[in-house]
Amino acid sequence: MLCGWHQQFFAVIRHFEGYRPYRPSIMISQSQDGEVIANVTEKSGWLPVRGSSSKGGLRAFRLLVKKLQETGLAYHILDGPQGPMGKVKNGAINLAQATGAVIVPVHVSADSAWYFNSWDRFLLPKPLSRVKLRFGDMIRLASTDNKEELERQRRDLENIMLPCLKRKI
Predict the structure, then answer these.
(1) What is the H or E stretch that residue 134 is in?
(2) pTM for this prediction
(3) How confident is the model over 59-78, as pLDDT tens digits?
(4) How far is C-alpha 16 from the geometric centre of its chain's CA atoms?
């Protein structure tokens, strides 16, 4: 399961086409903005699973579990859809626990980009800028029902991901 920040998600979409043969899934909010992103991801060969932590999340989570088990690949936005910025929510940990999937951090940078005045300082690479995707080491979580251990796993993932988040522009 690939995981990244909401801030950097748009820069990753361009590379989605390469994963088309695997028919991976991604959870996208049911908002109007989510509709646009869902259409783009679907045209790239991904299955958008509509829902979020704030609306339709349980149904979407169950479908994402099913699809991840079927295809072996999904993308999860760690702090979306409304943040707070840089705060890993429980979804990735719960998804990895439910499926046994490894977590692969995705770090994105662009040599020239615009940053929106939004909750996450959304990154939009400028035309002709070089965008770099870096994949971190696979993280295999120990299976557990212990709430303290799950929280530790969430914090550990957050600490791995925070260095690539652009906070100030």
Answers:
(1) strand 131-135
(2) 0.92
(3) 999 999 999 999 999 999 99
(4) 12
